Amino acid sequence: MRQIMSLIFLLLIGSLLVVGVYRWFLPSIQSVPAVPAQSSTVLITQQIHRMTSLATLRVDIAQVRETMVQGRYGSIRALLAVRGDALLGPNLIDAQIENLDEQARTFTLVLPQPRVIIARLDHSQTHVCAITFTELWFLVPGDAGRTEIINRAYAEAQDSLYLAAGDQAFVVRSREYAEQVIDQVFGALAWKVRVDWSN
């Protein structure tokens, strides 16, 4: 009998301790603020920024360029066959979200115009076709003129790739591909996007 009473007493003490601990910690648990759900705008912006620079078009470029260096005794010219490629796309860091409708799950995405992200000169496919001298240049001894014209020709070729890749026809194609990619990405998330391009 004493054992039964002791057991009941221990159970009663244990219950009181559980209730006390629960009441002690309950106010602190209730005081923890609820974490607000992220808005659709924030979630969409995060998704866009993950893509950063959206490379939507790769173009191959082939050119023949002439470079000239004028000297005291004449000029030297180099004819360069240029091969390279470039990547184009809009910078999504500057994207803006407008007209967002959470119920209809639609919004407008305003993007900057595509620009050349990178242009690369293919040194294995680019080569000097000819070097010509005029007037008295060929009488000047040494290879300094030849080295200068080749270095300048390659430097100008690299710059020319950026200019060639920025052609309006390439920009239009890049816009079209960007719209397709964005439509696929947000279509998979059940959002319908209209893309507008800033000037």
Structure description:
The chain has 199 residues and is an alpha+beta fold. The chain is built from four helices and seven strands. Strands 1, 2, 5 and 6 form a four-stranded antiparallel sheet that branches. Strands 3-4-7 form a three-stranded mixed sheet, with helices on one face. Strand 1 and strand 2 form a beta hairpin. The termini are far apart.
In short, what is this structure?
The chain has 199 residues and is α+β, with helices and mostly antiparallel strands. The chain contains four helices and seven strands, in the order H-H-E-E-E-E-E-E-H-H-E.
Residue-averaged pLDDT:
78
Q: How much helix, percentage-wise, in residues?
A: 40-55%
Strand content range? 25-35%
Shape type: rod-shaped
Q: How does the helix and strand content classify structurally?
A: alpha+beta
The whole-angstrom Rg is: 35 Å
Based on DSSP secondary structure assignment, what is the total number of beta strands? 7
Q: How many strands, which pairing sense, and closed or not: the largest β-sheet?
A: 4 strands, antiparallel
- Oligomeric grouping of the chains: single chain
Q: What is the helix tally?
A: 4
**Which regions are unreliable across 5 or more consecutive residues at pLDDT < 50?**
7-14, 16-26, 28-37
User: SSE order in H/E notation?
Assistant: HHEEEEEEHHE
Distance between the ends: 92 Å
